[in-house]
Amino acid sequence: MENGFFKNIEQKTGVRMKDIMELANSLQNANFKDEKTVRHIIKRVSALANKAVPQQLEDQIVQSIVKDGQKLDMQTITDMLNKKK
């Protein structure tokens, strides 16, 4: 069942599960209060999703994570990747 779940995510997002898991692992110790780190993560997710993030949207995401304390977890990343389609 787990394998089918991963295949479903890959089909919906067009992103390999290996890449998603590597990103998720890199987030475990990330400092989400650091603007530079958050911008790097946004660019990485954008590249994985093959979807450009306009500067204004990037700024809004950074604001919500760094200043407002919104969490960034695997579900949030999956949701961002799903918006690709």
Question: Key terms for this structure?
Answer:
85 residues, mainly alpha, Sporulation protein, SpoVIF
The total number of structural domains is 1
Q: How widely separated are the two ends?
A: 24 Å
Strand-and-helix sequence, N→C? Answer: HHHHH
Structural class: mainly alpha
Helix content: over 70%
- Rough outline: globular
Count, helices: 5
Radius of gyration from the CA trace?
13 Å
Average pLDDT works out at: 80
Q: Uncertain segments of ≥5 residues (pLDDT<50)? A: none
Strand fraction: under 5%
Short account of what is shown:
With 85 residues, this protein is mainly alpha-helical.
Mind sketching the topology for me?
Elements: H1 2-13, H2 17-27, H3 35-49, H4 55-67, H5 74-82
Characterization of this structure:
By secondary structure, this protein is mainly α. The protein has one domain (2-82). The chain is 71% helix and 0% strand. The chain is built from 5 helices and no strands. It has helices at residues 2-13, 17-27, 35-49, 55-67, 74-82. α3 (35-49) crosses α4 (55-67) and α3 (35-49) packs across α5. The model has no long low-confidence stretch (mean pLDDT 80).
